[in-house]
Amino acid sequence: xxxxxxxRTVGLLAFLVLAxxxxxxxxGRIAVELLGSGRPAAIAIGVGVxxxxxxxxxxxxxxxxxxxxxxxxxxxxxxEGRELDVSELPRRPSGRIEKPAADALFEQVRREWEAxxxxxxxxxxxxxxxDYAGDRGRARETMRRAVALERAERSSRG
Length: 158
Prior knowledge:
Structural class: mainly alpha
Number of strands: 0
Distance between the termini: 31 Å
Strand content: under 5%
Order of helices and strands: HHHHH
């Protein structure tokens, strides 16, 4: 991704996080007003409204943290020249890789993973292949495993 596009993406994400923070502050203010009203129904609603910004802040924080960790793994894979090359695979008009090509890629990467299932790199590659094949659940699960294995590798080195 060119630097200009990265800067735009980061700027957009920063704007969205700030907008969400403002929204969460407004919800928090409403919740405090409801809690301070003294009416049982308003207090119950206030507790519910107070939970929303807390839950939202947690979701935003965990999503950003996961994105940063995944970006770290992607950078390491790029530096090691181990990224999946999908540039030549046929694509649908939407830009997604055609299913037969994604499945063939997955089978190739799965064999690499089976040969070394405890390497974070093979887990990262198979997670990306799951994603290209449309299996988001397994992609997330396998990416979590790749993150844990990479973290363990880093901590054992130093």
